[in-house]
């Protein structure tokens, strides 16, 4: 149990620093280049753990499994994380961190629409509080944030939620670690192939003509320097590799509801770190919005945790009674055996 909380703490710190470290790299790298590189390295960090899990469970991939992983990689890495990287470029790191942490709203909607999962009253309460929180964070009445940044953040959040819901079946079959590793690796390889297409003269010219110069001749190896290398390695190895590895290690030792506390603490910790490291402003509206989002997370997380605890308490009491009964029986049998031995000796 203590090990599980250690993994949660490490995951929370890494995830809360993600937007800050991406922002600190500035324009040293093309956003697409950062995305496919960090998920390729992150997937390679997860690969040994995934292989060990597959061998332990004696699991094997089919062609359909590979296609599903590839589709998830396209949605969750190539599409969602490209929007995410663009969001970090165009707006404050703390805003991206807070808004992206509200992806549970869209997970709930997609799970209802695609999987037929029920929506409970606590989900609707959580949804309402999160929406209010988002409106406060972006401060719609006196909006000073980049509209493009907010749009990119919400597109990243929606598509990542779709990735999460789409990954439910392969996660049930192979586990979250394997699903994440394979979708990371295949998604990054898909992005590299798409990046190579931008070197075709016609494609490059079309992107430049449309004003999308960052999607023209996407670099594969440029931008590396000693000044940005620590932040780059932190994002690739630390956040995308070690962070996700600790996340799934935590799932093996504590409940899913407990692990979800990562996304409860991140909206609080990330803005504070962004203030300290990047000097991101912390206006009252943002603080109020964070409080609403936290309240929404509590409304969604707390009821299942309390229900599980209530179920566990009677079970624990029952086990204690059974143990006490067994102990009494063993004591009585030991006493009886002792009396028999005494009689035999006499």
Automatic annotation (TrEMBL):
Location of the protein in the cell: Cell membrane
Keywords: Cell membrane, Membrane, Transmembrane, Transmembrane helix
Coiled coil: none
Transmembrane segments: 5-22, 28-49, 69-87, 93-116, 123-141, 147-165, 177-200, 220-247, 259-278, 284-302
Pfam families listed in its UniProt record: EamA
Annotated GO CC locations: plasma membrane
SUPFAM superfamilies with a match to the protein in the record: Multidrug resistance efflux transporter EmrE (SSF103481)
Keyword Aminoacyl-tRNA synthetase recorded: no
Domain EamA residue range list: 3-138, 148-298
Membrane topology according to the record: Multi-pass membrane protein
Family: Belongs to the EamA transporter family.
Name assigned to this protein: Threonine/homoserine efflux transporter RhtA
Source organism (scientific name): Eubacterium pyruvativorans
């Amino acid at each position: 149990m203590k090990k599980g909380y250690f993994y949660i703490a490490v995951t929370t710190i890494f995830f809360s620093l993600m937007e800050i470290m991406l922002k600190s790299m500035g324009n040293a790298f093309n956003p697409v280049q950062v995305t496919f590189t960090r998920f390729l390295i992150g997937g390679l960090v997860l690969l040994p753990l995934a292989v060990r899990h597959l061998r332990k469970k004696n699991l094997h991939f089919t062609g359909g499994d590979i296609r599903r992983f590839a589709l998830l990689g396209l949605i969750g890495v190539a599409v969602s994380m490209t929007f995410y990287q663009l969001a970090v470029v165009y707006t404050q790191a703390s805003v991206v961190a807070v808004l992206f942490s509200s992806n549970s709203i869209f997970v709930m909607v997609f799970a209802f629409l695609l999987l037929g999962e029920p929506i409970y009253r606590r989900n609707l309460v959580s949804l309402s509080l999160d929406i209010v929180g988002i409106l406060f964070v972006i401060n719609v009445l006196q909006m000073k944030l980049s509209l493009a940044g907010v749009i990119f953040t919400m597109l990243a959040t929606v598509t990542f939620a779709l990735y999460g819901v789409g990954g439910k079946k392969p996660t049930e079959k192979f586990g979250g670690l394997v699903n994440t590793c394979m979708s990371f690796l295949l998604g990054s390889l898909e992005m590299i192939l798409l990046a190579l297409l931008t070197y075709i003269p016609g494609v490059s010219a079309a992107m430049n003509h449309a004003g999308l110069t960052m999607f023209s001749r996407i670099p594969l190896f440029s931008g590396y320097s000693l000044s940005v290398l620590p932040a780059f390695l932190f994002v690739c190895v630390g956040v995308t590799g070690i962070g996700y590895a600790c996340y799934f290690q935590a799932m093996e030792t504590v409940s899913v509801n407990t692990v979800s506390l990562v996304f409860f603490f991140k909206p609080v910790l990330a803005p504070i770190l962004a203030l300290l490291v990047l000097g991101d402003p912390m206006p009252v509206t943002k603080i109020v919005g964070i409080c609403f989002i936290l309240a929404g997370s509590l409304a969604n997380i707390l009821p299942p945790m309390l229900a599980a605890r209530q179920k566990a308490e009677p079970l624990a009491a029952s086990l204690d009674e059974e143990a006490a009964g067994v102990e009494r029986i063993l004591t009585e049998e030991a006493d009886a055996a002792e009396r028999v031995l005494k009689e035999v000796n006499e």
